[in-house]
Design goal:
By secondary structure, the protein is mainly β. Strands 2, 4, 5, 6, 7, 8 and 12 form a seven-stranded antiparallel beta sheet that branches. A six-stranded antiparallel beta sheet has the order 1-13-3-9-10-11, with no helix packed on it. It has a six-stranded antiparallel beta sheet with strand order 16-27-18-23-24-25, with no helix packed on it. Strand 14 and strand 15 form a beta hairpin. It is elongated.
């Protein structure tokens, strides 16, 4: 599950893992009292509606209706119209569920309509929202790696999250930055993990932080962890140390603790970068190389980032 908040309109961001059966997109927002025309929610091939949009959902207050359509190579298809279920000045909860043959759309907990796929659903890689609307958050669930997502079998450790190797579909930063996520937080790395990827994490350890943890893992439960990066200020007999390890089927292996310094401090901002290299993860903290952790499992098997503990995260982004 991935949550994005705050959301600035117009909004354009990569859909984590792309569109696939089982994905649900939840959008909570408010229709302004002074709305004149309306707004649109779009599942697009690129960061813009043009040239192709797989789903165009367009509440039109000036026409008292909702238009649904698709755009292919710059040409709109046949418009479908529905009654308008939204009201000026009111909050709404919009959910788009991806099925094999259609998008199922719910509004405020009730089924609203279905829109049969006119293009392969996988062509949609971006969510684009524009117009007269305020959005409080966007949430993606049913991602590859979530408990209810389809599973694939890899070479290591039995069932693993299905891997979507389409890195170029996410733009120059590998997807929209994630701001102020709730902790604990788990998200799929858009486009998967492979040598050359970078994960940027900015945050602040809490005033009385005991520990916080950053994991690169193969499932959302944490049973298979490729890199466990455990920052311990004071936890048991561990003081000001970062413990690195990996876990397979719930069984932890040998810890690595050596480092030349401890780069974290209570109430102090940190900027951490995880470089995915061919043979290891390289971790920088505050623009300084900190440690390396050699891969103990195939690097592509761990495409889920998980953060927990006594920490506030300001931003996560992928490149």
């Amino acid at each position: 599950m991935t949550t994005i908040s705050p959301v600035h309109i117009p909004y354009s961001g990569a859909i984590p893992g792309g569109v696939h059966e089982g994905l649900e997109i939840q959008i909570q927002g408010t229709v302004p009292q002074g709305v004149r025309e309306g707004f649109s929610v779009n599942l697009c091939q690129t960061a813009h509606r043009e040239p192709s949009t797989t789903l165009h959902f367009n509440p039109r207050f000036h026409q008292n209706g909702v238009a649904l359509n698709h755009l292919e190579n710059g040409k709109w298809g046949k418009e479908e119209r529905r009654d308008l279920p939204l009201h000026k000045g009111s909050d709404f909860d919009l959910r788009i569920k991806v099925k094999s043959n259609e998008f199922k759309i719910k509004i405020n907990g009730s089924h609203f309509t279905d829109f049969v796929h006119r293009m392969p659903k996988e062509t949609a890689q971006y969510l684009v929202i524009d117009g007269e609307v305020a959005v409080s958050f966007i949430r993606f669930s049913g991602l590859h790696g979530d408990a209810n997502a389809p599973m694939a079998y890899g070479s290591y450790g039995g069932p693993q999250p299905a891997y979507n190797p389409a890195p170029m579909a996410y733009g120059s930063y590998g997807g929209q930055p994630i701001y102020n996520p709730p902790i604990p937080f788990t998200t799929e790395v858009p486009g998967g993990v492979y040598p050359g990827r970078k994960i940027f994490i900015s945050g602040v350890p809490n005033h009385e932080c005991s520990r916080f943890t950053v994991n690169m893992q193969s499932d959302s439960s944490g049973g298979d962890v490729a890199m466990h990066f455990d920052v311990r200020f004071k936890f048991g007999d561990s003081h000001n140390v970062v413990v690195r390890n990996h876990c397979h089927k719930g069984q932890w292996a040998n810890e690595e603790r050596h480092a030349n310094h401890f780069p974290f401090a209570h109430d102090a901002n940190f900027d951490m970068v995880i470089h995915v290299e061919q043979h290891c993860y390289k971790v920088d903290v505050n623009n300084q190389h900190f440690v390396e952790f050699n891969h103990r499992v195939p690097v592509q098997s761990a495409n889920i980032l998980s953060i927990s503990g006594d920490v506030k995260i300001n931003q996560i982004r992928f490149q």
